[in-house]
């Protein structure tokens, strides 16, 4: 297990290093000089030079990459080109909207998908199964931002159960925050729940065909007992992978959903930064998103090894 | 199920035809504004109503289908064109350093969801349909690489490949002449699924303004326009939404149907 973890840890570090290098390079080749963009076309050469030094744009590319990565590690993301405030602070404030939203959606997606998948697998080929599969077929076809608009139309504008947009802030209390994130989370969770339910069903069906399931039945366990004691645990392995993958889709998807609900999250920040050509903010947000995805997939790999001992020895 | 294939193909063809017909005919010019007739509901002179500028929604949907299909199709082309050779190459060199590098590279691209790639590209080069294609296309590469590698690996163990090796064929020739034809079905099915995901991704990107730019109509931007009008003109949001859902549903049903039709044993991973 230790060897397996070390190996995964090494590949985690390489992934992060390569990802940061790719992002840095792409932002580097962007046309235009941030300093002259900030000061406008009438800037004096001396002011420009001073600002370039202040922003650290004078240093060589290697130095700048190293200082950027060093800054990321110590929580110093640099100074925003347009707002002149630390990027870390801007991101930290927005993270408290985007991350809870993604986790909330993941929770909802899992809560919907598990029972639906188990139900469909238990009733394979019957009306219930066909109903669930039909619903999931529709679920994966619905764009989440369109679904979000429909939710707003029904639950905010007609029924007035939820606010149509905006975020009250966590200081108004935990449940007020949860309430504000409920519609966005449902909109995000639905398509992912459809995918997860399909994976759950097919994974469970694979397991149900295994010999040990017949053995469990033969030794006298009821269908329900075999399903819960032996079926689910083994069926969970592929489901775990998909949950890990879904986290990245949910985090990226929250960027779009935030536009529908006018939520002050990372998405709003990144789109404002793009239109203001505030590349240092874009760079940091993108790195942060990629970082979260890589870390989550690493954790899923570890969970995988904990569930399935065969994976440990294979490494 | 045969029904899936028929229904899916039917739905898909409707939108492909609508896109093709739009090159020669649309009910109204899709950019023509007609303010006195703005926000008309469905069923009048304008079959699917008009938007806040009085533009005919049916015409915009038809021309928008062109954008969606073109972006998704080229993105699948990029994914297949680069992903399949990479996957086959990795499988031929299974267990080597090259294989490891290709697969790790795949994992890395997977860590950049297409939206994040699009954000990075637009931040640097600006928003356009071409950049949307690249963003979706790059994300398709690891999907095709992974699936063709997986399928090729199991083929490499088969007797007829062994026979080809004994006959002195090189790994490259075996990959092209024996492996590729045997994974084609799988690629067609996965291609259909990536096509439908591409339509969804294009809609999402143009909704947030990272896709095709005005005046090129796109379903995603029609939805962005509809958002502020949703209380007074819900049809502006309903029509493009249904267009996306039906196209994606059609492609998915077609993919499922094709999979069962081409080979009932095939199992395609759907991500």
Automatic annotation (TrEMBL), chain A:
UniProt keyword list: Cell membrane, Membrane, Transmembrane, Transmembrane helix, Transport
UniProt entry tagged with the keyword Ribosomal protein: no
Pfam families per record: BPD_transp_1 (PF00528), BPD_transp_1_N (PF19300)
Species assigned in the record: marine sediment metagenome
Alphabetized InterPro entries for the sequence: BPD_transp_1_N (IPR045621), MetI-like (IPR000515), MetI-like_sf (IPR035906)
Major subcellular site: membrane
Name of the protein in its database record: ABC transmembrane type-1 domain-containing protein
GO cellular component, one term: plasma membrane
CDD domains named in the record: TM_PBP2
Membrane topology, record value: Multi-pass membrane protein
GO MF, any single term: dipeptide transmembrane transporter activity
Localization per Swiss-Prot or TrEMBL: Cell membrane
UniProtKB/TrEMBL annotation, chain B:
Pfam families on file: BPD_transp_1 (PF00528)
Intracellular or extracellular location(s): Cell membrane
Protein's UniProt keywords contain Transmembrane helix: yes
Entry GO terms, CC: plasma membrane
Cited PROSITE patterns: ABC_TM1 (PS50928)
One of the GO BP terms on file: transmembrane transport
The protein, known as: ABC transmembrane type-1 domain-containing protein
Principal cellular location given in the protein's record: membrane
Organism: marine sediment metagenome
């Amino acid at each position: 297990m230790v060897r397996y973890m070390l190996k995964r840890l090494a590949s985690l570090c390489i992934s992060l290093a390569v990802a940061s290098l790719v992002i840095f390079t792409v932002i580097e080749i962007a046309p235009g000089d941030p300093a002259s963009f900030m000061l406008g076309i009438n800037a004096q050469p001396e002011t420009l030079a001073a600002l370039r030094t202040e922003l650290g744009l004078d240093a060589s590319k290697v130095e700048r990459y190293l200082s950027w990565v060093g800054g990321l590690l110590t929580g110093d993301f640099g100074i925003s080109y347009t707002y002149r405030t630390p990027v870390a602070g801007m991101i930290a404030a927005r993270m408290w909207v985007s991350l809870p939203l993604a986790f909330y959606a993941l929770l909802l997606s899992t809560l919907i998908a598990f029972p639906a998948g188990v139900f469909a697998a238990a009733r394979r080929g019957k009306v219930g199964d066909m109903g669930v599969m039909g619903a999931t077929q529709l679920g994966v076809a619905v764009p989440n931002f369109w679904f979000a608009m429909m939710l707003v139309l029904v639950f905010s504008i007609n029924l007035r159960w939820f606010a149509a947009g905006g975020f009250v802030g966590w200081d108004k209390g935990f449940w007020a925050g949860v309430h504000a994130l409920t519609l966005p989370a449902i909109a995000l969770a639905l398509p992912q729940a459809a995918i997860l339910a399909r994976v759950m069903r097919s994974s469970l069906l694979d397991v149900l065909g295994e010999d040990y399931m017949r053995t469990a039945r033969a030794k006298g366990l009821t269908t329900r007992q075999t399903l819960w004691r032996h079926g689910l645990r083994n069926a969970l392995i592929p489901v775990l992978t998909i949950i890990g993958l879904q986290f990245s889709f949910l985090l990226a998807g929250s960027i779009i959903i935030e536009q529908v609900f006018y939520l002050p999250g990372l998405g709003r920040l990144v789109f404002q930064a793009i239109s203001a050509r505030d590349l240092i903010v874009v760079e940091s947000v993108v790195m942060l998103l990629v970082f979260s995805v890589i870390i989550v997939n690493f954790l899923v790999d570890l969970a995988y090894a904990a569930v399935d001992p065969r994976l440990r020895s294979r490494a | 199920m045969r029904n899936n294939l028929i229904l899916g193909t039917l739905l898909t063809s409707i939108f492909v035809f609508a896109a093709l017909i739009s090159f020669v005919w649309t009910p109204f010019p899709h950019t023509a504004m007609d303010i006195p007739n703005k926000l008309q509901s469905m069923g009048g002179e304008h079959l699917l109503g008009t938007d806040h500028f009085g533009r005919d929604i049916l015409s915009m949907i038809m021309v928008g289908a062109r954008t969606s299909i073109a972006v998704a199709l080229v993105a699948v082309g990029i994914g297949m064109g680069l992903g399949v050779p990479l996957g086959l190459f990795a499988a031929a060199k299974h267990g080597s350093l090259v294989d490891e590098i290709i697969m790790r590279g795949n994992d890395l691209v997977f860590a950049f969801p297409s939206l994040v790639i699009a954000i990075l590209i637009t931040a640097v080069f600006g928003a356009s349909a071409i950049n949307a294609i690249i963003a979706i296309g790059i994300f398709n590469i690891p999907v095709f690489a992974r699936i063709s590698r997986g399928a090729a690996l199991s083929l490499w163990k088969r007797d007829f490949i062994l026979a080809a090796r004994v006959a002195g064929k090189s790994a490259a020739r075996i990959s092209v002449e024996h492996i590729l034809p045997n994974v084609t079905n799988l690629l067609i099915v996965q291609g259909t699924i990536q096509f439908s995901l591409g339509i969804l991704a294009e809609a999402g990107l143009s909704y947030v303004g990272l896709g095709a730019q005005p005046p090129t109509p796109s379903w995603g931007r029609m939805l962005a326009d509809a958002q502020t009008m949703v209380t007074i003109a819900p049809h502006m949001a309903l029509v493009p939404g249904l267009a996306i859902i039906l196209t994606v549903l059609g492609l998915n049903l077609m993919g499922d149907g094709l999979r069962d039709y081409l080979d009932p044993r095939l199992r395609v991973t759907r991500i």
